[in-house]
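Researcher: Sequence recovery benchmark, item below. Answer with residues only.
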């Protein structure tokens, strides 16, 4: 059985930085991603920039959900590399978002 892709044209997305959190050892950025010409709804993307590179960690339908998703991914995967000893930057960002420290 041969399955063919029925894609007419590639879509594109508008990506806008909407929130920055200054955290220990870097920055957490949250982007609003608005796909166009695709069967995909908009979402937020949370990334961590450790001052040498920026990596995506979480997505969600709201800023808080994206940060929560990123927190879980950090906790799950940070032990696999040298970031294991660092505090979870997304927990810091969530705390800031909720009006904490």
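Model:
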């Amino acid at each position: 059985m041969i399955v063919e892709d029925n894609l007419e044209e590639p879509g594109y997305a508008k990506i806008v930085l909407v929130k920055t959190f200054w955290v220990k050892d870097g920055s957490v950025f949250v982007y609003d991603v608005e796909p166009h010409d695709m069967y995909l709804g908009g979402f937020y993307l949370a990334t961590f920039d450790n001052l040498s590179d920026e990596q995506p960690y979480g997505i969600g339908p709201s800023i808080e959900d994206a940060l929560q998703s990123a927190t879980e991914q950090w906790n799950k995967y940070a032990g696999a590399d040298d970031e294991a000893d660092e505090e979870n930057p997304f927990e810091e960002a969530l705390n800031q978002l909720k009006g904490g420290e």
